[in-house]
Amino acid sequence: MSDEATAGGAAAEPAIQLHGVGVRFRVPNEPIRSFKEYLLRRLRGRIGRRDLWALRELDLDVPQGDFFGLVGTNGAGKSTLLKVVCRIIRPTTGRVVVRGRVAPLLELSAGFHADLTGTENIYLNAGLLGFPRAAVEPRFDEVVEFAELADFIHVPIRNYSTGMVARLGFAVASMFRPDILILDEFLAVGDPGFQEKSLERIKSFCSQGTTVILVSHSLEQVRENCRHVAWIEHGRLLETGPTVAVLEGYDRDLHHVDPAAAETGP
User: Fold this and answer.
1) How far apart, in Å, do the first and last CA atoms of the chain sit?
2) Least confident of 110-114, 129-133, 163-167, 174-178
3) How far is Cα 183 from Cα 173, in angstroms, rounded to an integer?
4) In a domain, 217, yes or no
5) Is the confidence at residue 77, as pLDDT, over 70?
6) Which contiguous run of DSSP H or E holds residue 100?
7) How far is CA 7 from the centre of its chain?
8) What is the CATH number of the domain that holds 8?
9) Whole-number Å distance between alpha carbons of 109 and 111
10) Among 9, 67, 208, 226, which residue has the fewest nearby CB atoms (within 10 Å)?
């Protein structure tokens, strides 16, 4: 198993390659209701565990510069796959190659500290993304303006709404054009005006070569924005290809439609 990242990469090479990737978690056989119960069971050697595979033997190539969608029902493994790409989780099996800098928007509050102000969190979050203070300062006003938080930027973000945190998170993550932008249900949060503005920026990045991966339960959003889609269920890749073709099969499966019956009609 190996995990590689190379800056840039040849134009013909995929931005992301997963070969035989599997992720296994060890989970208790029975629910543990409290930390005290966990300690007692641990001391008595009574914690039985089983293997839970979140991903199994997954092979996937994501082309550079693509607006790529991931669909699947809850628990299908989509978020786990994104965390593997972002190197938050190391795969149990397989090989992952990521070419370029990744800007993840997986959890809206990730990288933020509730007791720090918006200003302090901009520098903190940017630092976690690899941007030094000297690089952020010339872009600071632009970030605040894009996030529409000028009146609240010196307020601790524990007082922010979910939408305000989402705006700040996106503004920081997109301060500099990333090679790969990861969006997990991001377009489902915030007001329509900010969603549209964010989508314009994302499409501008795509036109300059950024690869975007979008996870969304909104098939309309995926259909309107993504060129290609991967359909994942129970940790396995069922289908990948052009958006229309993959979503057609996924939508049929969601509604348990028999293709032959649909063609013949009543």
Assistant:
1) 52
2) 110-114
3) 11
4) yes
5) yes
6) none
7) 20
8) 3.40.50.300
9) 6
10) 208
Calculate mean pLDDT across residues 197-206: 91
Residue with tokens 């029975």: 30
Domain annotation covers residue 107 = no
Q: Which amino acid is at 205?
A: F
Threshold 0.90, pTM exceeds = no
- Domain hosting 122: range is 113-176
Lowest mean pLDDT among 140-149, 229-238, 243-252, 257-266: 257-266
Task: Write a three-state SS string for 4-44.
Answer: EECCCCCCCCCCEEEEEEEEEEEEECCCCCCHHHHHHHHHH
pLDDT band, residue 191 (cuts 50/70/90): confident
Contact predicate 133/64, CB 8 Å:
no
Across 187-256, where does the E strand assignment appear? Answer: 211-215, 228-233, 236-242
Alpha carbons within 13 A on the beta-carbon side of 19: 10
Domain final residue pick, 130, 155, 176: 176
Residue 32 in tokens = 């543990």
